[in-house]
Amino acid sequence: MTEERGSDVADLAAPGVAEGVGGVLRIPAFRRLWLALSVSSLGDWLGLLATTALAQQLAAAQGAGFAVQQYAIGGVLIVRFLPALLLGPLAGALADVLDRRTTMVVCDFMRFALLLFIPLTHSLYYLIAASFLIEVVTLFWTPAKEATVPNLVPPDKLERANQLSLLTTYGSAPVAAAIFALLAVMNRALENASSFFTANPTDLALYFDAGTFLVSALTIWSLREIKAARTAEGERHKAESFAGLMRSIVEGWKFIGTTPLVRGLVLGMLGAFAAAGAVIALGKGYTTLHKGGNAAYGVLFGAVFTGLAAGMAVGPRLLAGFSRRRLFGLSIVGAGSALAVLAIVPDLVLALLITVVLGMFSGLAWVSGYTLLGSEVADEVRGRTFAFVGSLVRMDLLVVLAAAPFISGAIGDNTWELGKWHFHSDGITLTLFVAGLLAVVVGMLAYRQMDDSSVPLLAELWSSLRGHGTRIRHPGLFLAFEGGDGAGKSTQVRLLAEWLQTRGVEVLTTREPGGTGTGRAIRAMLLDPTTALSPRSEALLYAADRADHVSSLVEPGLRRGAVVITDRYVDSSLAYQGAGRELAQREVRQLSTWATGGLVPDLTVVLDLPADVGLSRAGGSPDRLEAEPLAFHERVRAGFLALADREPGRYLVLDAQESPEQIAAAVRARVEPLLSRLLVPAKGHQVVRT
Questions:
Q1: Domain 1-230 classified CATH 1.20.1250.20?
Q2: Which of 140-149, 238-247, 553-562, 587-596 has the lowest mean pLDDT?
Q3: Rounded to an integer, what distance in angstroms lies between the CA atom of residue 675 and that of residue 672?
Q4: How many C-beta atoms lie closer than 10 Å to residue 552's C-beta?
């Protein structure tokens, strides 16, 4: 470690230094590397736009027809994505053998030279060869950069540094699209002033692209803090070999074959990437078909990534209470529908707006899918699942980017005559339309595989938009028993737990209030007939018990994949304090939602019993709530039934006057289909009683 780097870290750790992104960028060495990454990423995206546009234009200049122009674009895309699959492991291993600073500088100079000669040669063959070599060089640059970052920032800032790097890598795509569109307009203006720019309308973009890598090389050359690889890191990267990649794929396939959730996730993510990839692959031909030039192509490309960013940022917050499993499949259906509409829209301006919508749905599917993988896949298989999905997504993107132009080219540009009618079809429109329909089918299949709720879809969507609903589920299953006093909830909790134990699942039974140590003290206060509490104080105490209950008992059990059964939950507050005490239902619900973090049971069983019958069953000395007048308990009963009527799919209402065996059989019949959602194998039976 050099003295300069030591002072950098010390400066960062000093009091008053801003945290987060600002704190990371206060490290001079990392800031300069980040600037180089920003410029390099901008060049990568700009190069993708410029080379695909140039490929079509060079083919057209040679007199090639529609099909050959599409093949030219497909050829460039193939050679840009193929090296990552063929040479990725080798590049990662060599990056730890070579000097990192020298590697990055040499790679940037090579990319500068290769790009500079593309507009000078105006050769389609050189363009394809240079595109391949540029991607090969990039494979060596990227791991050298990734391995350098941990040496420039302290460990506690590494996560923020990586987040900033990812944001820069993908966030520069819309910027590159805007620059490409602007340069295309400038290029046309320069054609009138100089014959140098008349040969090809993408020349200026390619010169600008080459310049970005020259700037990156000079910036990295100034970074004396970048060190050579350490042996330990070299061994780690060597372990990430092709054999390791294949092993993760084999293990991933095995896990997918036995897990409906992951099967639906993988299917859906492949569909989402295929839809977005089809737009990128056919974007240039699409804009040309609609009489748009390079500027329109750049705007279309930027619209996809603008929509992606908007979907990732806005969607999860707008639908915070909506089931993420359902949201994932529906997002892919939305993306596919938008793609199908995009294919047949005749107006380019309208097409750009639809492209933003397509990107939003794709971004929402992407963030929902990865969140589900992180939250619902068991920890012991999460790493290999992420590795498998990442590898499969790269292969999927490569196939789509390569195949779409060739498919559209094979279909060609055709016109048929049928009497007085003339029909026109082209490969781009048909390919995009069919890709959209396939994405819709994939989204529907993913939805069916992953649907985790029996609540009607529109009802849950409306509830979520109003601020109600559930947050992301855990791997376990959450069941609640509700009803008035004397309804037999404790008996049914016990019978269900015993039955589940015979099915080989972990069961955790608890109650409210009093499911935890803190809850027992609150329970004693709430039920003590000598305690005087106002309705609002009572509601707050129940919320305090519930917050401790969920955070310390319910959520840990659900994260382990257990079936958690609770005797009373949020609905008891809505019925007793809302209906019984006649407090505002909306306020009681908001309080409980805040206390639980929005956690809602997968199924709520309401044991319905006339209030007078329930009170007669209770027996003994009445507690504080049992001592309330009959009218209070009748309002409570009506409150439970009203809640069940609003969401019949999530409730099971049973007549508590039936025999315990009949009630237990009805509960088992409703619970059994829900057990397929569990991801974690059996661990036995645990009962928490207070």
A1: yes
A2: 238-247
A3: 6
A4: 14
User: In the CATH scheme, what is the code of domain 262-380+407-473?
Assistant: 1.20.1250
Q: Looking at residues 89-98, what average pLDDT do you find?
A: 61
Tokens at 416, concatenated: 């048929």
**Which of helix, strand or coil describes residue 413?**
strand
Angle CA 329–331–333, to nearest 5: 75
CA distance 433 to 344: 7
> In terms of pLDDT, which residue wins out, 499 or 87?
499
Q: Where in the chain is the domain with CATH 3.40.50.300?
A: 474-687
Fold topology of 474-687: Rossmann fold (3.40.50)
Question: For residues 629 and 495, what is the distance between their CA atoms, to the nearest angstrom?
Answer: 31
Joined together, the tokens standing for residue 164 give 């900033």
Q: What is the largest CA-CA distance in the chain?
A: 101
pTM over 0.90: no
Write down the residue that tokens 């092709």 correspond to: 242
Q: Are 404 and 343 in contact (CB under 8 A)?
A: no
- In sequence order, the 6+-apart residues with CB closer than 8 A to the CB of 319 are 327, 461, 464, 465
pLDDT value of position 245:
47
Average model confidence (pLDDT) across the chain: 76
What are the C-alpha distances in Å from 501 to residues 479, 490, 557, 562, 630?
Answer: 15, 17, 15, 11, 38
